[in-house]
Each structure stands twice: as structure tokens, then as C-alpha cells.
Automatic annotation (TrEMBL):
Listed GO biological process terms: carbohydrate catabolic process
Family note: Belongs to the glycosyl hydrolase 1 family.
InterPro entries: GH, GH_1_N_CS, Glyco_hydro_1
GO MF: 6-phospho-beta-glucosidase activity
Identification of the protein by name: 6-phospho-beta-glucosidase
Xref: Pfam families: Glyco_hydro_1 (PF00232)
């Protein structure tokens, strides 16, 4: 117990589908992310049936990391990153998702990317499935509604684990796995038609993902016992609006919905409460005879989570809502909000770390935390983003307190994101998170030139002083 450990992993996070581009070259297949046309801050992106003419699909080019990765990794090394959380595009490895043999050019790209990271002493932290499912699996099988996807996913994992066993130590099985119950389309490519039973479909699909994750964990440990394989969830920290016991009950139920996922992946079983929740929602899970054994044997080594904001529970009914990461909340009068309406709550990060560590007593990993804002280039080319620095600084202060004062075991911190990239929810570029500015606008125009923001130099100092100079 005490200060941040010497081997604490300061880093940054991205996702393949939001920055790589090169969506249809070198054998890559179409993913669900490739079928997301551009939206706006006021309108969600539309998930089209394949790729249609006349629409703009910002993920198709992203920020062209596929062709700029050497330049970009060099910038991350200059900033001093100890780790780089990225993901692998499933359709680069298996274009349709159900092939027996992988696409060698896709594997070669990630070989080269990881080699580039390791050259600078940057530890790759790899998310295996990050909001992109092979579109062919949606068309042929209905995506994760179909149990067959478990085997396709595990085969995909087997190829990755063998190929990169000496290059990647840290893995996360699914990005924000619990978001399948909030918006099943973006995380899992699931469409639910009119008249279909939403709860039955999403919780059955979630069960398939949980089984797939557990199988992957067991397989990965067999291939390389040194692997550290974790889960990743959105952590929806929620306060009660008042001390009314009805608010407290609602808050408990809101949190329980999501803790079901971490309970299964960390503890290895559905709790009695989770089974009651499912029964209340009239969900009857189809569980194969070996599933419970698989879940028990495939528990994770660490728990990764995203934290951007906190929420408020009120039993009084509908009130004016704020925006958020897959979630909306009633307004908390004690908090400021971002340009996109997300509530800013640094102390909530400390509370989240404590709640998760108290519950599970396994190492934690802050996989995402950041501020989406509009940045402007000055006439001299500089980019001043004190709002981002202040946001991250305030959260890092609380993170350090959770470790030094509360005893939380924390592996790393990878703020979202290292570079400006495509927004997952709207497809915008003007909603920028990065330390590095990328010349690209919402219409796909721009030179793609990379420029360092003030936050680049600030974070470099934070890493160099191991968090002592903020």
C-alpha cells in the first residue's frame, strides 16, 4: 500500500475501428462499424444495411492510422507512454468471421504495430473485440443472438494468442461488455425488430459473450500462462438524488444491472440477485450444461473499466436529462458539464475505484477516461486545451488518492484518447479527445497532419514525474 507502483502503466487508449481506416484493403472484411454512417451531436449514427452509396462513413478512413502508425507511435513514445491500449479489427483477421484460416496480411499489420510499440518500450494492451463485429456474422447468424458466435470468437482469440504470445501480455476480451443491454447495435451489431422481446434477446446475447470471454481466458492462460486477461466494462457510478429510500432502491437496481457482468466475469457465476433480476425481466436464459463450469474456470485476472461521468437516480420520474457515455442521467447541480453535456465528476472516479476494489479485490485498470471538446488551432499553430488538462488533472488526483490513501490496486491509466479520432456515437471529428490533433473535419476533409496540443506536453510531464507534477 502507498504510492503508485513503479511499474504503473501510464498510457493512452484508442480503438481500431475509430482510427485505423483502410477499411477494405489488404483483405479486410466489412465490420458493423463500417456500416455506421455519420451522425451529429444531436443525432445518433445510423447503422445501415451494409455500405450504401451516397452516405459518408467516417470509419472508412478514420485518421488513417493504418498508414501512419509508425509516425503516431513515435509521437506516443515522445510523450513517454508506458502502454498503448488498442484493439484488433476482427475483420482484418477473419474478413467474414467464420473462416477457418486467418488473413495473413491482417496479422502482419498487427505484428508490425506491436513491434513498433515494443521498440520504444511501450506495452501493448489489446482489446480483442471493440465495438465491431464482422458484418457477415450479422447477416448469416444474427450476430451474438446466435450461440455459434462463441466458437467463431474463440477461434479468433486462439489465432491472436498464438501469433502474438511473445508480444502482447495484457488482453481485454470485450470493450464495455455491459453496454449490450443499453445499445445492442453499436457494441454487438444486434438488431431487434418490432415486436421482438428486447430483454430476452440482449441478455441471451450477453450470456453468449460471457461464455465466449470465459473460454478465451482459459484458452489464453493455456497458451501462455504469463498472459494477463481482463474484462472491460463501462462503470455507471450512480448517486441518489435524495436520501429518500426509494431513490436508494432505484440506484441499487441501476447499478446491479451492470454489476451482473462483472460478477460473472470476476466471480465466475450468476449471483442469486442476478437470477432474480432476470426473472423480474421475464428473461429465461438458455444455458448449456457446461456453461456454468466454463464461467467458473474462465474468471479474469483484472477488471478494466471506462469512467467519464457519473449519474443520478431519482424515483420521482422523468426530469431534464444530461447526455453521457451510452447513458443519460438527470442533472447533478453540484457538477459542471462538458460541451457535449457529460457531467464532470473527478471524485466519482475515486468512488468507482473503491467500489470495484472493495467488491472484487482484484487489480483494476482505468481503460478510458477523458474529455470530448472542440479544439482550435491558433495562428501560430499552437493548440491550447486547458479544459482537457484540468479534467485529466482532477481525475488523476483522485486516482492517486484511491491508491495512496484507500489502498486500491491499480495496474494502469489509459485516458481516451491518445490521438483525435472518430466519435463512436456520432461519427464526428470535432468532438476531440486526443493529446495529438489530427487535421480532419466532420465531412472527412483535411490533411491528416498531426499536431501536439498543450495537453501533450502536460501529460509528458505527468508521466516523467510519475504523477508527482500535475
Amino acid at each position: 500500500m502507498g504510492k503508485l507502483p513503479e511499474n504503473f502503466m501510464w498510457g493512452g487508449a484508442v480503438a481500431a475501428n475509430q482510427l485505423e481506416g483502410a477499411w477494405n484493403i489488404d483483405g479486410k472484411g466489412i465490420s458493423t462499424a463500417d456500416c455506421m454512417s455519420a451522425g451529429s451531436v444531436h443525432r445518433q449514427r445510423e447503422y445501415t444495411d451494409g455500405v450504401l452509396d451516397g452516405r459518408y462513413y467516417p470509419n472508412h478512413e478514420g485518421i488513417d492510422f493504418y498508414h501512419h502508425y509508425k509516425e503516431d507511435i513515435a509521437l506516443l513514445a515522445e510523450m513517454g507512454l508506458k502502454c498503448f491500449r488498442t484493439s484488433i479489427a476482427w475483420t482484418r483477421i477473419f474478413p467474414e468471421g467464420d473462416e477457418l484460416e486467418p488473413n495473413e496480411k491482417g496479422l502482419q499489420f498487427y505484428d508490425a504495430l506491436f513491434d513498433e510499440c515494443l521498440k520504444y518500450g511501450i506495452e501493448p494492451v489489446v482489446t480483442i473485440s471493440h465495438y465491431e463485429t464482422p458484418y457477415a456474422l450479422v447477416k448469416k447468424y444474427g450476430s451474438w443472438k446466435n450461440r455459434k458466435l462463441i466458437d467463431f470468437y474463440v477461434h479468433y482469440c486462439e489465432v491472436l494468442f498464438h501469433r502474438f504470445r511473445n508480444k502482447v501480455k495484457y488482453w481485454m476480451t470485450f470493450n464495455e461488455i455491459n453496454c449490450i443491454v443499453l445499445n445492442p447495435t453499436i457494441p454487438a451489431g444486434i438488431r431487434i425488430g418490432e415486436g421482438e422481446n428486447f430483454n430476452q434477446i440482449v441478455f441471451q446475447a450477453a450470456h453468449h459473450e460471457l461464455v465466449a470471454s470465459a473460454k478465451a481466458v482459459k484458452l489464453g492462460h493455456a497458451i501462455n500462462p504469463e498472459f494477463k486477461i481482463g474484462m472491460m466494462m463501462i462503470y455507471p457510478l450512480t448517486y441518489t438524488e435524495t436520501c429518500n429510500p426509494e431513490d436508494a432502491l432505484l440506484q441499487m437496481k441501476m447499478m446491479d444491472l451492470h454489476l451482473m457482468f462483472s460478477d460473472v466475469q470476476v466471480r465466475g457465476y450468476y449471483t442469486r440477485k442476478a437470477k432474480k433480476q432476470l426473472k423480474e425481466k421475464q428473461v429465461i436464459l438458455h444455458i448449456e450444461p457446461d456453461d456454468e463450469k466454463i464461467l467458473h474456470e474462465g474468471t479474469v485476472d483484472f477488471l478494466g473499466f471506462s469512467y467519464y461521468m457519473s449519474n443520478v437516480a431519482s424515483a420521482k420520474g422523468q426530469k431534464p436529462m444530461t447526455e453521457g457515455n451510452m447513458l443519460q442521467s438527470i442533472r447533478n447541480p453540484y457538477l459542471e458539464i462538458s460541451d457535449w453535456g457529460w457531467q464532470i465528476d473527478p471524485v466519482g472516479l475515486r468512488l468507482s475505484l473503491n467500489q470495484l476494489y472493495d467488491r472484487y479485490q482484484i487489480p483494476l485498470f482505468i481503460a478510458e477516461n477523458g474529455l470530448g471538446a472542440q479544439d482550435h488551432i491558433e495562428s501560430d499553430g499552437s493548440i491550447h486545451d486547458p479544459y482537457r488538462i484540468n479534467y485529466l488533472k482532477d481525475h488523476i488526483v483522485q486516482m492517486i488518492k484511491a491508491v495512496e490513501e484507500d489502498g486500491v490496486e491499480l495496474l494502469g491509466y489509459t485516458p481516451w484518447s491518445c490521438l483525435d479520432l472518430i466519435s463512436a456515437s456520432t461519427g464526428e471529428m470535432k468532438k476531440r479527445y486526443g493529446f495529438i490533433y489530427v487535421d480532419r473535419d466532420n465531412e472527412g476533409k483535411g490533411t491528416l497532419q498531426r499536431s501536439k496540443k498543450d495537453s501533450f506536453y502536460w501529460y509528458k510531464q505527468v508521466i516523467a514525474t510519475h504523477g508527482e507534477k500535475l
